[in-house]
Amino acid sequence: MSDARAILRISVLGSIQVHRGPVPIDPGPGKQRAVLAVLALHVGHAVSIDALLGAVWDGTQPASARQLVHTYVARLRRLLEPDLPPRGRTNIISSGPGGYRLLTGRELVDVTRFELLYRRAQQFSSADEPQRTFELLGEAMRLWRDPELTELSALLHASDTLDLLRRTWSEAALDYVRAGLDVRQAPAVLPVARRLAATEPMNETAQALYMVALEQTGRRAAAVRHFDDIRVMLKAELGVGPGSQLSDAYRAVLAGDEPAAGPAGAVSAPAEQIRPPWRGRGPGLGQLIYRERDLDAVMCLLAGQRLLTVTGPPGCGKSALALHAAACLRDNLPGGVVVLDCADLGPTARLDRRLSMLLGAEPATGAPSRLIGEQQMLIVFDDAELVMDGCAEVVDDVVRACPNVSVVVTSREPLGVPYETVWRLRPLRLSRDDEACWEAEPPAVQLFARRAAQVRPGLRLGADEVRTVETLCEQLDHLPLAVELAAECLATDTLDELSRRLDDPLRELRPPRRGQPLHHRSLQAALLRSLGCLDQQERWCLRRLGELPLRFRAEQAEALWRSSPHGPVDGRLMLRRLADKSLLFVHHDLAGPVYGKLRLVHRVAVGLGTAEHRFGEHAVAVR
To answer: Where is the OmpR/PhoB-type domain (predicted)?
Structure first.
């Protein structure tokens, strides 16, 4: 699972880029990038030193050019295999009598991946499967970030190779536009049709297809104007009029009834490059506060790991962090982002079918891994704590079968599979390292002020009010969900009235909230969801912990758990299980581990018997 070659991707169909997972790696200065590009254009084949010299320097080579090539390769090896000793860094760039060879999989270099996708699309076209042809061509076209190959043209003296690549793009673009028009997806192919018409002004087929795409997206007048422009250009440049194909397309535009608009509700794609798709619940709105380190850590971990689980207590912002990271990485993933929302699913839900539906399978049959294949994408399983067994099964199948997929799971506990990396998210409380240099209001206060200003525009907090809010945030454990719920109460309450609500925040902080999962509408619902992750023994142990202070030692908990109505209790194991489920946290001092509870978790533990009696029906439903 940790093989670097399975997650390293190299892109040259635009700016030269290297990604480990979805995270970019700087390939270095211009000549070094040029060497990497030549190797990528010939992936799997040896490139001689003389060929590298000719491509990088042409006829103006410095005396040290040959030694520079060796230096650039050594630096690239260090970038691509940083964890290996210098003499062992030959798994991705090897050397031999024939020169240097890039050994990464062909599907992990965009040039050869494009060729593979284009070849498969042609096979489906021959089999008369237009929809699958269109999908594969769309995936292939998204790999081209710059059809003009501007950076390659500036770095390499290999005009024949680059001209061949540009011609291949034009041929694939023609096929893509045709396929899109055949399946009534004119809005999707219009940007490519426009670019193709601009780069191939003398190509009659390209101009005709652009006119049809304009007409099918409701732009008949623009199609007529384009025909007039082409007619003038042909007369001025070649002294001829439009050919039969272009003339036929023009007559069809003039004679047509209302243009087909594609599927109901389809809108025209923007003129710029089509972005990779985003399937499922969209990215969060607004900026993250005091999560820069967490965001950087998540993105760096995804550079080297295929499965990352973000855990943390209820309401700490796991979903917001994961979706924000996915939005940042989206443009580096030709297959896009898929978000499977597990918030309202029960333990028996078929996650494989739901994922297949998000991937476009109708009906949702077959393993999702077969639909994904070799696509480069990120899948987010959000709020998965109540469907851990099903989630682990689907994730394991996808990660093992799909080498170019990264998976992020958000949950209150880890999945528990052997290759999982876990990032534990904490509340918005400042760390000791930050306290000395933090000049603005604490992050929880900033979040409160931002949300309060949304529900009561124009609200400004004075110095005394900021101190009140600081106290309020401390009582709410600096949990983003709790802080936002409190701020939203200011739509009807004063700050003093809000402070009184904190006598019973689990029940009192319940502002109107629509468009949110049930467990994001009140603190009570959020904490009851955590109880739904516990078995009877764990619930009993958590209830007894309500008798201890917020900080305690393992020996104190074990003394409470000597006898249980649910059988013997392994105290250390139980503490670890409750910590894994984000109901306890642990740190170490000279005397050993110290366990702690959030204030809100302590409230639940203290009143667990009453809460289970009063809200038992809901708690059972949550489970």
So the answer is: 1-104
Phi and psi at 512, nearest 5°, equal -60, 130
Helix, strand, or coil (residue 18): strand
Structurally, how many domains does the chain consist of?
Answer: 4
> For residues 393 and 296, which has the higher predicted lDDT (pLDDT)?
393
The reported pTM is 0.68
What is the pLDDT, as a whole number, of residue 613? 42
The alpha carbon of residue 273 and the mean position of all alpha carbons in its chain are separated, in whole angstroms, by 19
Residue 333 lies in a domain: yes
Condensed to tens digits (0 to 9), the pLDDT of residues 227-255 reads 888 888 888 887 787 888 888 888 888 77
Percent residues over pLDDT 90 in the chain: 47
Tokens in use for 5? 């070659």
Q: What is the pLDDT of residues 149-189, one digit of tens each?
A: 999 999 998 778 899 999 999 999 999 999 999 998 888 88
Q: Do the beta carbons of residue 523 and residue 481 sit within 8 Å?
A: yes
Does any domain span residue 451?
yes
First CA to last CA distance, the chain = 33
Does residue 267 surpass a pLDDT of 70? no
- 456 lies in which domain range? 432-512
Inter-CA distances, 144 with 107, 295, 544, 566, 590, Å = 15, 28, 60, 61, 57
Q: Is residue 401 part of a domain?
A: yes
Residue 518's SS3 state is helix
Last residue of a domain, one of 401, 424, 447: 424
Return the structure tokens found at 539: 């619930």
Same structural domain, 500 and 573: no
Answer yes or no: do 415 and 451 share one domain.
Answer: no
How do residues 454-480 score in pLDDT, each as one tens digit?
888 888 888 888 899 999 999 999 999
CA distances from 549 to 63, 95, 140 (A): 74, 64, 59
| 306 in any annotated domain | yes
> For residue 620, is pLDDT > 50?
no
Residue 49 CA to residue 399 CA, distance in Å, equals 38
| Domain harbouring 305, CATH code | 3.40.50.300
The answer to whether 494 touches 618, Cβ cutoff 8 Å, is: no
pLDDT tens digits along 598-613: 999 999 998 875 544 4
Count of C-beta atoms within a 10 Å radius of residue 534:
18
Give the Cα separation of 78 and 64 in Å (integer).
21
Across the range 403-409, mean pLDDT stands at 93
Q: Which of 104, 105, 181 is nearest to 137 (CA)?
A: 181
Whether residues 418 and 461 fall in one domain? no
385 and 481 in a single domain? The answer is no
In this prediction, residue 174 carries a pLDDT of 94
Whether residue 297 is found in the same domain as residue 401: yes
CATH code of the domain covering residue 17: 1.10.10.10
Q: Is residue 105 located within the same domain as residue 36?
A: yes
C-alpha distances out from residue 623 to 302, 345, 350, 523, 574, Å = 31, 10, 16, 17, 20
Could you tell me if 380 and 485 lie in one domain? no
Mark which of 424, 440, 473 sits at the end of a domain. Answer: 424
Average pLDDT over residues 367-385: 91
Do 290 and 409 lie in one domain? The reply is: yes
